[in-house]
Design a protein that fits this description.
The protein is an alpha/beta fold. The chain has 10 helices and 22 strands. Helix 9 runs parallel beside helix 10. It starts with 6 loop residues before the first strand and ends with a strand. Bound molecules: S-adenosylmethionine.
């Protein structure tokens, strides 16, 4: 039975999902949009794990807070942490990493302070679009927040939101919902529209006019999984370590150019002296082309479009002898111990769930140095435990705030064989 009366408690910390956590009758209570030190009145809602979730009724006395920069903060599901002052913000993100490591009994020789990256630089956004509104989902809801401002996105992405409203009115009836994925490439914005219906001639013409008027690099639409370009005004590309790579519509990119540069610099510093590198979960080759400046690199990636782009880019750049690539599902078929012989360094940058299967093989390998890139301290710590049990030691962890104001933390870590 939920407790009917509001309760008063003090928020002690911010958890990995971005909610403030206080305690009441020995249970953790999770309250969104609260800060350490806040004394709050809250209404308990439902069970959450061994604790309770609650909604904020009133801040009785404020803790480590600041005024959020965005007017949508608190309703928009995009940001969770704009209300924390800088000290509490950085301490919270650092604490997530420390707690994840402790949970898996992982100790690191050195954890650097978190490196901050600028807001207003994110280069990809997935907007929900209707004939009336464009924006992001509200927190834990399908309700749309009609976007008037956004402080995390690159201004070139925000610039298409207002004009996109007119196009959405042409493409969608009053009850329909679509999606617009905008990616900022080196050649301009690449826009993909997910539409509930196949557009008619009027819709196609409107899209072509929109691509021209907004000077888009490419505009495509997708229905039932098939991507159909309407206008390719310039082929969207990204420059990875100076190599021009064609951008498939749905390929992974690091959050921003600043994040890409910071992570790449960390990988290169940690990989200094490498001669033969395997870059696992390589995507379009963010680390492949960086490491190819000093080593032979074998890139492994599951997405075929990314592998094709990477191989073509390597060939155009005259790197065919230096960079090789393979399409492979590393969860189903991790690189085996015999295949790892000959690599002095392995870089791996898996998706959020981590690289459990590949780490189980790496743990039994003789690769001298492993460089992990991760967007999830929890799966990273689990994988680190596997590697440490296999005889590696965690020499260095560098955290980065690549997803500003979100409940995410990026990191680069170096393991050495004992
Ligand atoms: C976090 S991204 C990193 C990409 C690249 N390292 C970069 O920095 O741009 C993870 C990549 O792993 C790929 N991936 C996901 N699951 C995979 C699997 N089971 N096997 C191989 N690659 C996978 C995704 O397609 C994506 O490109």
């Amino acid at each position: 039975m939920p407790h009917a009366e509001p309760i008063t408690l003090t928020i002690d910390r911010v958890g990995v999902r971005g909610d403030g956590i206080g305690s009441w009758r020995g249970q953790s209570v999770y309250v969104p949009f609260t800060a350490p030190g806040d004394v709050v009145r809250v209404s308990l809602e439902s069970k959450r794990g061994r604790g309770q979730s609650a909604t904020l009724d009133e801040i009785v006395s404020p803790g480590a807070r600041m005024v959020p920069p965005c007017a949508h903060f608190g309703t928009c599901g995009g940001c969770a942490l704009q209300h924390l002052d800088e000290t509490a913000y950085l301490a919270s993100k650092t604490q997530w990493l420390e707690e994840a490591l402790v949970q898996h009994r992982v100790t690191a020789e050195c954890i650097l302070p978190i490196q901050q990256l600028p807001a207003g630089t994110r280069r990809r956004a997935r907007f929900q679009i209707t004939a009336q509104q464009i924006g992001f989902h509200a927190r834990s809801s399908h309700r749309l927040v009609n976007l008037r401002e956004c402080h995390v996105l690159h201004p070139d992405l925000m610039a298409i939101v207002q004009p996109l409203r007119g196009l959405a009115r042409t493409l969608l009836s009053s009850k329909q919902i679509g999606e617009a994925t905008a990616t900022l490439s080196a050649k301009g914005v690449d826009l993909l529209l997910d539409l509930p219906d196949v557009p008619g001639i009027e819709g196609l013409e409107a899209m072509a006019r929109f691509a021209d008027s907004q000077d888009l690099a490419r505009l495509s639409w997708r229905h039932d999984g098939e991507v159909i370009p309407v206008a390719i005004r310039r082929k969207p590309q990204v420059a990875l370590a100076g190599v021009a790579v064609d951008l498939p519509t749905d390929a992974f990119l690091q959050a921003s150019l600043d994040a890409e540069a910071a992570l790449t610099n960390a990988v290169m510093a940690m990989g200094d002296g490498a001669k033969n590198v395997a870059d696992l979960y390589a995507g379009l080759g963010t680390f492949t082309f960086a490491m190819a400046q000093q080593a032979k690199v074998h890139a492994v990636e599951a997405a075929s479009g990314a592998v094709t782009s990477l191989v073509q880019a390597a060939s155009r750049a005259g790197l065919a002898g230096t960079v090789t690539a393979e399409k492979r599902d590393l969860a189903a078929r991790p690189l085996g111990v015999h295949e790892l012989v000959g690599f002095d360094t392995v870089v791996f940058d898996p998706p959020y769930a981590g690289a459990k299967e590949q780490c189980e093989v790496l743990a039994g390998s003789q690769v001298r140095k492993l460089i992990a890139v991760s967007c999830n301290p929890t799966s990273f710590a689990r994988d680190a435990r596997i590697l440490i049990d296999g005889g590696y030691h965690l020499a260095e962890v560098r955290p980065f705030d690549a997803f500003v104001w979100s409940a995410n933390l990026e990191l680069v870590a170096r393991f050495e064989r004992r």
